[in-house]
Amino acid sequence: MDRKPNSIKRRTLLAGAVGLTAAAALGAKPIAGKYRVGLIGHTGRGGYGHGLDKLWRDMPLGKIVAVADPNPRGLAQTVKRFGADKGYSDYRKMLDESKIDILTVGPTHIDKHCEMVLAAAERKVRGIYIEKPLCRTLEEADKMVAACDKNKVKLAMAHQSFYVPTMSRVAEIIRSGKLGRVLEFRGRCKEDHRGGGIGLWVLGTRILAMMKRFGGNPISCTAAVLQDKRPITAKDVKNCQSYGIGPLAGDEIHAMYRLAGGAVGYFDSVKRAGAGWPSRYGLQIFGTKGVLDIHSSELFFPSVYYLDDPLWYPGQSGKKWVPVTSAGIGKPEPLKGENSHHGGNVLAVKDLISSIEKDRQPVANLSEARANLEMIAAVYESVRLGEAAPFPLKNRKNPLAMLEKKNQ
């Protein structure tokens, strides 16, 4: 399998897949600048995420009118780059003064995500597009859901795999029965310096989102979290400044999920066990008739291969891996555009706007985002309980913080 990233000319995206795919969802010809957009970023601490600011260049329905960034230099640069009317060091002041319709929450550091969403919901913005993962705890997520429901705010999380066309083909392949009965999912993160707990939070969020999408809701999670090859204890719990995660532990994670669709899902993350590039970061789906291998699902042209082999063993069967594109198995890719997060971001925000106008939930909505966070939290809840953690989780706090208190 060749997993080399596609090299496709930049800036042709909207003329290809994004424009064609989203046009029907939006209906009438868009009115330029119809929605007033506010950006929240933090230069030097999570920035503006994976292009959550740049997407608005290809979104004529929205006009960036204000930017909030506590870093003065980053704020000035971003205001200039997008021609915003005004910049703010305090996002609350921006929300108070700038009459924002749609808010982009860009920082990859998640410790402020909850308070940002609550502030936006209280001021009744119409929509929010937020970088993954959602927040630090299920307790925070519950507050976000309550606030958005109360104020009728639509929220979409930046899980681009929900929108890119090739991933829709993956769903069709599974539904068609080409894999037979799906037996198991196997996912890994990049397993670089972020392997273990950070890998679960930062990259595992994407893997687990796909696992749930294709395998059904999780029923339970059983996990082992290790530090230096031994089970973690309270002494291993540290406040993780990286990405603003909070209490975290483990340089090695092994988790098993029972899924409502009947399959079992496995997620593993071991620090510095990666293979470099191409990496093992991705998800494999094994069925009684064959295998799907998915990598870089967040990119507009993810690397997806299909193996028509019930043995799962091409060395013995002689079967070949066949690429999957937005057109299907073994078909040339008809779409054009840059192979980055950009296309998925544009499609996600078009869907968000459609959800506002049609009063429905976005595809990668707040409930999906909370469920995704719950799959992450379940790993540590299983460790805390010493047994399988059933869904939905009764404990809404950080299990590691509770583990720490329990053992002091």
Describe the structure using short key phrases:
408 residues, alpha/beta, Rossmann fold, disordered N terminus, eleven-stranded mixed beta sheet
What does this structure look like?
The chain is of the alpha/beta class and 408 residues long. The chain folds into two domains: 31-157, Rossmann fold; 162-337, Dihydrodipicolinate Reductase, domain 2. It has twelve helices and 19 strands. The strands form three sheets. Strands 7, 8, 9, 12, 13, 14, 15, 16, 17, 18 and 19 form an eleven-stranded mixed sheet that branches. Strands 3-2-1-4-5-6 form a six-stranded parallel sheet, sandwiched between helices. Strands 10-11 form a two-stranded antiparallel ribbon. A hairpin with a 3-residue loop joins strand 14 and strand 15. Helix 4 (113-122) packs parallel to helix 5. The model is unreliable at 2-28 (pLDDT under 50).
Number of helices: 12
Measure the end-to-end span. 50 Å
Give the total of beta strands.
19
Question: Which stretches are low in confidence, meaning pLDDT under 50 for 5 or more residues running?
Answer: 2-28
Mean pLDDT: 92
Strand content: 15-25%
